[in-house]
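Fill in residues.
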């Protein structure tokens, strides 16, 4: 029986449907799992994505020929039944379910199974073949509860307010920034966001996601507010002259990679907060098991480890070589848009 998804130079291709999933080269028809830069690229002729992804996709990619589909609704394309199901990764993220010729395949894109108030929770989808990421596909990666994480972040911010220092936390502009904002305590002080973050905040709010009030640094009237603010910006901005206006600030980085303390030291951050929009090791295993799939294809991350482990568990495991970048790509991909639309000159 022919595979429903194969690897091509352009990306992951569905032969009977004649379309691609998250292609990295321009193609005629692309199904997009979510709006991160390594999965959603410009230049495709026609895009299909989850309805809740429209705002963030248009914010990041501009004008496009975009068709949207509510979660769970099926369409038939060249005889292939296609539906999109929540991936729990970021706003509008989706798993792509394909059914054709008695087979069901699911391409998950990026996903997480932990709760997140900024996006629809991950939904296990039963299938014969599951295509999974493995960004944090090592047993050392195990996330703590959000309640513990945000208590730690709020305590750090509060201590900095008492010391008269700004609290600058670097994270990726789309997904991570909004999840961070949703969990902090705005009563501690003002919240300032970089110009790359605010347009995505607007897209989230337009989808009904509750976020605290935020402002651009050029909107700040009282300069004393800069000394007690929480500042949310992309990693590239934290290493730029944009930071000068905050003076002697305390810096932190929010990422799953902060699970390894050496990463914080190498980055020169004062603090590292373990916050990821990807599944940890237990989450990956739980998600894969919930699909009931006997064949699993691993796309990016700790691929050899995942393939070997799943094979040892009695599954048919293999890999697709892709150009997806996992949790690291957004820092590089956002470098150009990080010049804030508010002017951005260092004060």
């Amino acid at each position: 029986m022919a595979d429903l998804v194969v690897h091509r130079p352009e990306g992951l291709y569905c032969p009977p449907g004649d379309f691609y999933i998250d292609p990295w080269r321009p193609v005629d028809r692309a199904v997009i799992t979510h709006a991160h830069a390594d999965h959603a690229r410009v230049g495709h002729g026609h895009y299909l994505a989850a309805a809740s992804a429209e705002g963030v996709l248009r914010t990041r990619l501009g004008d496009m020929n975009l068709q949207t589909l509510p979660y769970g609704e099926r369409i038939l394309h060249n005889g292939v039944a296609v539906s999109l199901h929540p991936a729990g990764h970021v706003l509008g993220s989706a798993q792509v379910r394909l059914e054709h010729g008695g087979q069901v395949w699911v391409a998950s894109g990026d996903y997480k199974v932990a709760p997140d108030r900024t996006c629809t929770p991950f939904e296990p989808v039963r299938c014969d073949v599951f295509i999974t990421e493995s960004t944090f596909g090592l047993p050392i990666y195990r996330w703590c509860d959000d309640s513990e994480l945000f208590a730690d972040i709020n305590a750090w911010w509060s201590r900095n307010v008492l010391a008269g220092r700004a609290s600058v936390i670097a994270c990726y502009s789309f997904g991570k920034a909004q999840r961070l904002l949703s969990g902090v305590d705005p009563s501690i002080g003002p919240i300032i966001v970089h110009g790359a973050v605010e347009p995505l905040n607007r897209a989230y709010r337009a989808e009904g996601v509750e976020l605290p009030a935020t402002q651009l640094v050029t909107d700040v009237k009282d300069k004393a507010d800069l000394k007690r603010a929480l500042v949310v910006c992309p990693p590239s901005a934290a290493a730029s002259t944009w930071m000068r206006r905050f003076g002697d600030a305390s810096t932190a980085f929010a990422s799953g990679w902060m699970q390894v303390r050496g990463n914080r030291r190498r980055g020169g951050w004062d603090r590292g907060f373990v916050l990821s929009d990807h599944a940890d090791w237990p989450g990956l295993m739980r998600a894969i098991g919930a699909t009931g799939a006997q064949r699993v294809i691993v796309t990016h991350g700790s691929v050899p480890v995942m393939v070997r482990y799943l094979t040892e568990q009695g599954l048919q495991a293999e890999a697709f070589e892709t150009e997806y970048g996992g949790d690291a790509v957004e820092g590089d991909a956002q470098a150009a848009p990080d010049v804030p639309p508010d002017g951005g000159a260092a004060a």
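The two ends are 63 Å apart (CA to CA).
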